[in-house]
Amino acid sequence: MANDASNVPSTWLGTCDLFSLEGKRAVVTGASRGIGRALAIGLAAAGADVVLIARDTALLADATETIHRHFPNRSATAHACDLTSVEEIAATVAAIHAQGPIDVLVNNAGVNIRTPALDVTPEEWQTIIDTDLRGAFFVAQSFGREMVKQGRGSIVNISSVGGHVALRTGVVYAAAKAGVIQMTKVLALEWGKHNVRVNGIGPWYFRTPLTENLLNQPAYLAEILARTPLNRVGELHELIGPTVFLASEAASYMTGQTLFVDGGMTIYGF
Ligand code: NAP
């Protein structure tokens, strides 16, 4: 009886439910604009209550108001925090946990300063590394500590194609994002036994305040498109599906992986 539903394990049924974040509480860093804002809205659309972190309180208020307007049944709260300060991270994580446990962390905040290697200053190095690598690590450590205690959690680190292949957009950013990709693997290794999964997303070009100056240069944009098999830059909503997937039960046997959401850029050898 090949089609007898009673022979099908219950875990195979209701596939769409696997992607639901109903009843989960998710934190997104760098959620005041760009990719983080889109991901916070997308996680709320998938059913999660969301907690947004960034420095700009007016933009955070706009993002939470947008989520309340579209998803009146979801909770959306904001915490202003400078992620270059380990003390601020600790205080923010404590305040968030005082309101209840966190199931999902999207570790997204990041900056770039695109200076040629010979001209990089110590201050530029410090700014990028403090936000993109040191900040990302201590955010993961702080939420990860609670997830390990509670015996469940899913972390999605936002790195970049620039942490995987050599780009012209800055050596310090490349080093930081390569660090995030490797950090994703080691945290996955350490925390797997506690049922905490750690994965990542590596975007290619998406139009945000971080990239719009570059994408507004027609010659530069043409070079990008020539290296992108899908022949276009990404739309912000195209990061939501992969992030929800990694955050959800649909990816329950995946850890340590970084998915490149890149229109095929990283597989383009010639
Ligand atoms: P964006 O528009 O410039 O947004 C960056 C976010 O990070 C903002 O919400 C910003 O909020 C926050 N942030 C920066 N420094 C912070 C700090 N010290 N403390 C707290 N929050 C901080 O950039 P995006 O394009 O959305 O990029 C988001 C992530 O994706 C970054 O990690 C970036 O490297 C990565 N990425 C982007 C692309 C792309 O094409 N856009 C490609 C590859 C990777 P406040 O200023 O309010 O603090």
TrEMBL record:
Family affiliation: Belongs to the short-chain dehydrogenases/reductases (SDR) family.
InterPro entries the UniProt entry points to: NAD(P)-bd_dom_sf (IPR036291), Sc_DH/Rdtase_CS (IPR020904), SDR_fam (IPR002347)
Pfam families linked: adh_short_C2
Name this protein carries in UniProt: SDR family oxidoreductase
Residues of the signal peptide: none
